[in-house]
Model the fold of this input.
Amino acid sequence: MDILSMSLEEMTAAFRENSIQTFRAKQVYEWLHKHLASGYDEMTNLPKDLRARLAEEFPVRACVPEKVFTASDGTVKFLYSLPDGDYVESVLMKYKYGYTVCVSSQVGCKMGCAFCASTLGGFKRSLTAGEILSQVYNAQRHTGERVSHIVLMGMGEPMDNFENVMRFISLVTDEKGINLSMRNISLSTCGIVPRIKELMDKHLQLTLSISLHAPNDEIRNKIMPVNKTYGVDELLDICREYASVTSRRISFEYSMMRGVNDSDENARELASKLKGMLCHVNLIPINEVAESPFKPSSPARISAFSAILADKGISTTVRRRLGSDIDASCGQLRLKENKERGGF
Ligand code: SAH
Done:
């Protein structure tokens, strides 16, 4: 395992095995996870020869910032390169309550959602815990201010990289590291039911976000292939159970696509299926991706849809779009970069 993905205990054991004094593990761990050092050069209280040896035997496998874009609203988008030559991206957003980083969990995505740019770029591989972590650390280094919230809503399906994502969550909430609050983490999934159950059994205080986007199988099958394996009713059943077991409110993401999922009838069906569940619905006008045919619903349509949900007692917000002038949604930046380089 790479050093940035190791817990302090694992690092200590690895150092012991390699006959490196174990108290060095605590120093290295603090440098990496508290002082956010990007490499051994910065670890000035370590002897030079040890630093050289560690760099050789335990290289820090982090995402390297390649390009940084700042949008007119202050949103910052990072394009990172990986040692194997591919790209991932993350977004830093400033809200009233602090900085939120949206991180990627995979290079590309296997899920095949019809409206999503991450899928268009193809799937390459899952990221290590350290690679996910380094997106947060780099954003914090960039602003010089504490990142308080994390959303796993960048490229990739976190539930398809479950182990590394769980490891990432445990490192980022470690009090010996940046000690982020579990309550300030949102994990978003397209709805892989067995993994949702596994997460439920861990009783974590994070927020589970479900990319629902449709009230029934007929519509959802057309836009999200995962629905053919885990249909809407099965998904909503586990969500209901999750909310009651964890007492945490589920957040449903619903991207509004003109003429696809935005009718009054769709809103009524959605409301009836979510009735009584501890949940919240985020309505988001879909971001147009050049390669896909979907268009955002009009503001009037979104208001009408939202009003129906509210009238039926479903807590609903219409999400602001940040960073839309820098292609800051899911996979758009990687797609552009690959195209510019003649990737596909
Ligand atoms: N794979 C996970 C994590 C990605 S989160 C998931 O599906 O939840 C990214 C969110 O943005 C998801 O809700 C996704 O469905 C949504 N999304 C993808 N492409 C979009 C687009 N073009 N416009 C608006 N939302 C989009």
